[in-house]
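Posting for a labmate who doesn't have an account.
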Amino acid sequence: MSELSPTQFREIAAQIEGEVGKYIVGQREVVRHTLICLIAGGHVLLEGVPGLGKTMLVRTLARVLDLKFARIQFTPDLMPADIVGTDILEEAEDGRREFRFQPGPVFTHLLLADEINRATPKTQSALLEAMQERTVTVANRSYPLEPPFLVLATQNPIEMEGTYPLPEAQLDRFLFKVNVEYPSSQELVEILNRTTREAEPEVGVVAGGAAVLAMGALAREVPVASPVAEYAARLVIATHPDSETAPEMVRRYVRYGSSPRGAQALILGGKATALLAGRYNVAFEDLRAVAPAALRHRILLNFEGQAEGVSTDDVVEEVVKAVSEGR
């Protein structure tokens, strides 16, 4: 059993969100889903226009959790070695020359991959391999990444010129994809009040990396009843156009549906969501709460869907409506 109790889990999570909220105005769903990914041991892809606080979110989260933070600005000339590191030749005290591994910025706890779609596929793959394997291989030697390890990658949905969109197979490695919405007028006023003064808000350390790992261990222990697991499976299957249970929108506008990783994301996200709600069991409502973030990037629209401006969020919403909780 985990060293944490469900009550302690919820208290720590509430303190984390409270401290982050001192710096980040609004964006509660973004903060919640980022925290869920950190707990579940997954990675999150944020999509939103510049200036919405994505970098500040990761930096603040690292400060609250006393974790190491690094930021990589992805550009077309960025090389894999700029991310994972490289061997450098140096001279020892006895005059001999030997190679020493110089770790790259990926050797951290919270890594912000800013505008990941601006780097070439080769460079993207270097980061995505580290995300999947939790290790880095350089010159036939493997170096483990210290847990917890969270990659928060960002994409700008407006300026697409000169970008290299992530293939579906690489998008699938992100546990959640979260849309960062523009703040309301009241939130924008609060942002101005907080950021145009001399003194910045102070945030305190709530927990460390050990607590995050303990929260993740507890989340994985949360039981999932068979009907709930079957519901998650039916949701994923209904995203495939050739499925008998697929709604009309899926049959008409979807080319490929979610992979099995989508079902895993539903369950892992549902477990963390249940604990955050004070329950030690996953309910149907927990899966519905995380369905958009878990499935929106795992659905590939066909040409007709793209031409008519259908969004994958519309598809997920229709799937959730069409799939019943019962068999």
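Reply:
Got it, the structure tokens are right above this. The first helix runs from residue 6 to 21.
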